[in-house]
């Protein structure tokens, strides 16, 4: 492949540009993804009407107090010795009514940094993949068009398929 495509951009410049684009996209999209996951993970409103208002149940035994929290995904069981109040650390999760409501409640109760939880994993996954894909796509498209191996109409499709 050529060291530089006809537009005068080197593969290194293409990798930096596409990697920067992946970082900027991740910075803007991660908060939306956090809110989306929180909205999807809460129980539907009908299920909350069928259940008691609190999803926290406590059963007392002679020496142990049992705390069961039901969040729809996991049902952890906590045993507290000597009937100690182990429920004081736990706060029932807030119910979200919409996207903006979720943004406001997450920031208010958990802090602004929570909106970017998961960002490092997203960056580790998307930046290399995006940089490699777009650089390979541009280089393959320039190679295919330059060698007249395919028509200019099919070169982007072939380059995209090969780059993936």
UniProtKB/TrEMBL annotation:
Query: Which cellular component, as a GO term, is one annotated location?
Result: mitochondrial inner membrane
Q: Which gene is annotated as encoding this protein in its UniProt record? A: SLC25A39
Q: Describe the family membership recorded for this protein in Swiss-Prot or TrEMBL.
A: Belongs to the mitochondrial carrier (TC 2.A.29) family.
Q: What does this protein do?
A: Mitochondrial transporter required for glutathione import into mitochondria. Glutathione, which plays key roles in oxidative metabolism, is produced exclusively in the cytosol and is imported in many organelles. Mitochondrial glutathione is required for the activity and stability of proteins containing iron-sulfur clusters, as well as erythropoiesis.
What protein am I looking at?
Mitochondrial glutathione transporter SLC25A39
Membrane topology type, per the record? Multi-pass membrane protein
Q: Which domain of life is it from?
A: Eukaryota
Q: Which reaction does it catalyse?
A: glutathione(in) = glutathione(out)
Q: Name one GO molecular function term.
A: metal ion binding
Q: Report keywords, A-Z.
A: 2Fe-2S, Heme biosynthesis, Iron, Iron-sulfur, Membrane, Metal-binding, Mitochondrion, Mitochondrion inner membrane, Repeat, Transmembrane, Transmembrane helix, Transport
| Xref: PROSITE patterns | SOLCAR (PS50920)
The record's listing under InterPro entries reads: MCP_dom_sf, MCP_transmembrane, Mtm1-like
State if Metal-binding is listed as a keyword: yes
Instruction: Please tell me whether the keyword Repeat is annotated for this protein.
Output: yes
Which residue ranges contain the repeat Solcar?
A: 9-143
Q: What is the lineage of its organism?
A: Eukaryota, Metazoa, Chordata, Craniata, Vertebrata
What GO terms in the biological process aspect are recorded for it? heme biosynthetic process; mitochondrial transmembrane transport
Location of this chain's protein in the cell: Mitochondrion inner membrane
